Amino acid sequence: MAKTKYLASVAITAAVLLLSFIKIKGGSEYPLFPHADKCVHAIMYFALTAAFCYDSREKMRRHKYKSYLLACILTASAIGIITELGQEYLTDYRSGDIYDFLADAAGSILGAVTATYIIRRNYKTTKN
């Protein structure tokens, strides 16, 4: 059990970093709809923060969950800032964008709120 305790967080963090820095060959210059990339950012960081919350659910149940919730959001947001800076300064095929980061942060907040709701609901169900 201990070896897989943070498996979701590690796997999704790796996927987010890979997708953030991979060079996409033959990518479409015309998105499906305006700002489709912002939706992708929000979805990735929703999943990332939800995984952080899920993996720390036992601590969230025993302690002040707001502190852990904030830590999950801030950790995912820090990853968002770092990837945007990395795209801007470490690659010549990607660019950093403040609006991408804002989409990351929005996805993080939604992911944390949703995961917390599900975790707390399931805890109440299993407690009864």
Automatic annotation (TrEMBL):
Keyword Transmembrane helix: yes
Keywords: Membrane, Transmembrane, Transmembrane helix
Superkingdom of origin organism: Bacteria
Coiled coil (residue ranges): none
Residues passing through the membrane, by range: 40-56, 68-86, 98-119
Matches recorded under PANTHER family: DOMAIN PROTEIN, PUTATIVE (AFU_ORTHOLOGUE AFUA_3G10980)-RELATED (PTHR28008)
Name of the protein in its database record: VanZ family protein
Originating species: Candidatus Caccoplasma merdipullorum
Lineage of the species this protein comes from: Bacteria, Pseudomonadati, Bacteroidota, Bacteroidia, Bacteroidales
